[in-house]
């Protein structure tokens, strides 16, 4: 007859529940899987499946009752770490969305924002285009597999322990978040330069021919020039997005204290 003690059951439950909380937190905010269009059942099912495969190979876990005070603290810590990992992975997509918003602002299409059910939030036209392009590039580069790999490796970088780990993780993440604005400006720089030249041209025309109705012809020409520049620079932007996504995945281990 097989007999199980309460301590054994608590250890088994903790060995499954602790990593599951981190993986679920990652999937709740990570790119693609964290979108509102992905059903919650799919996230939970994938999280449970990955946990069952990963749990046996994890470093030694603390023998703590998950329902006790210390166990609840460990669960809360795993949720925070998982959210930080997912947020770090989404930062580069936020940079790409911001670049699209900057481009629309320069083109005069900033007012043409609409509700994006994937985020969910308001999104401009170019932001939506760049978001779809970045998602396709991410999938083409097997970014979803890299995401899972980073998530699993995080158990080695920040092992589950009774003592808090990753004290400097949030500070490093905030510091890396400053790159979002630099990346967004880098992507939008060709459009910013083109729109600057266009606006300077309209300024010269206004001084040379005051009777010219710049308001009537300025907006259509600005949008037309913006669309032409966008089409011409889109291949370059796609290559830049590819490099940024690959480089960002390489930066993630340093954010979470990997040696």
What is the H/E string?
A: HHHEEHHHHH
Structural class: mainly alpha
The share of residues in extended strands comes to under 5%
How many separate domains? 1
The main β sheet shows up as: 2 strands, antiparallel
Round the mean pLDDT to the nearest integer and report it: 76
Helix content: over 70%
Categorize the overall geometry.
elongated
Strand order of the largest sheet: 1-2
Count of helical stretches: 8
How many DSSP E strands?
2
CA-based gyration radius: 24 Å
From the N-terminal CA to the C-terminal CA, the straight-line distance is 47 Å
Low-confidence stretches: none
Description:
With 259 residues, the chain is mainly α. It has one domain. The protein is 73% helix and 2% strand. It contains eight helices and two strands. The protein has helices at 6-29, 40-54, 69-107, 125-140, 143-157, 169-177, 179-208, 214-255, and strands spanning 114-116, 121-123. A two-stranded antiparallel ribbon has the order 1-2. The longest helix has 42 residues, at 214-255.
């Amino acid at each position: 007859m097989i007999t199980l003690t309460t301590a054994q059951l608590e250890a088994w439950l903790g060995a499954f529940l602790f990593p599951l909380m981190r993986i679920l937190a990652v999937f709740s905010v990570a790119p693609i899987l964290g979108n509102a269009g992905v059903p919650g059942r799919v996230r939970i099912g994938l999280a449970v499946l990955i946990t069952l495969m990963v749990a046996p190979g994890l470093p030694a876990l603390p023998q703590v009752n998950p329902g006790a005070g210390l166990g609840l603290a460990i669960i809360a810590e795993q949720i925070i770490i998982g959210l930080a990992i997912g947020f770090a992975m989404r930062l580069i997509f936020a940079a790409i969305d911001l670049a699209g918003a900057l481009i629309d602002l320069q083109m005069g299409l900033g007012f043409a924002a609409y509700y994006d059910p994937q985020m969910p939030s308001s999104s401009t036209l170019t932001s939506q285009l760049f978001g779809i392009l970045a998602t396709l590039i991410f999938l083409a580069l097997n970014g979803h597999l890299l995401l899972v790999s980073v998530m699993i490796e995080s158990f080695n970088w920040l092992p589950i322990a009774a003592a808090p780990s990753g004290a400097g993780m949030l500070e490093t993440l905030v510091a890396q978040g400053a790159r979002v604005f630099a990346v967004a400006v880098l992507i939008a720089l060709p459009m910013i330069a083109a729109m600057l030249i266009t606006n300077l041209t309209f300024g010269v025309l206004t001084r040379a021919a005051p009777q010219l109705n710049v308001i009537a012809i300025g907006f259509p020409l600005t949008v037309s020039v913006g669309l032409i520049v966008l089409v011409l620079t889109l291949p370059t932007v796609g290559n830049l997005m590819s490099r940024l996504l690959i480089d960002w995945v390489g930066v993630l281990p340093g954010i979470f204290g990997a040696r």
